[in-house]
Amino acid sequence: MGKDKISMPASHGGLMQYYEEYKGKIEMSPYIVVVLTIAVIIFVVILHMVGPNIFGF
């Protein structure tokens, strides 16, 4: 019976290590992201209001 026993390889007890900080190629502050998001929303709203007059949809 001792030969039929299967043992699992040693590990970290199922815990995985994730690094908190990731350095990406493009770094932007949260302020810039919020401002750009609001600018895109305003641009889309204006395009919905004025677009049919300009493009004839």
How many DSSP-defined strands? 0
What fraction of residues sit in β-strands? under 5%
Give the radius of gyration: 27 Å
Helix fraction by DSSP (H/I, runs of at least 4): 40-55%
Low-pLDDT segments? none
| Helix-strand sequence | H
Structural class: mainly alpha
Task: Give the CA-based shape.
Answer: elongated
Query: Tell me about the biggest sheet?
Result: none
Mean of all residue-level pLDDT scores: 79
For this entry, give a set of tags:
single chain, 57 residues, mainly alpha, 1 helix
Strands, helices and their partners?
Layout lengths: L29 H26 L2
Compact description:
The protein has 57 residues and is mainly alpha-helical. 46% of the residues lie in helices and 0% in strands. The longest helix is centred in the C-terminal third of the chain and has 26 residues, at 30-55.
Tell me about this structure.
This protein has a domain at 27-57. The radius of gyration is 27 Å and the shape is elongated. By secondary structure, the chain is mainly alpha-helical. The protein has one helix at residues 30-55.
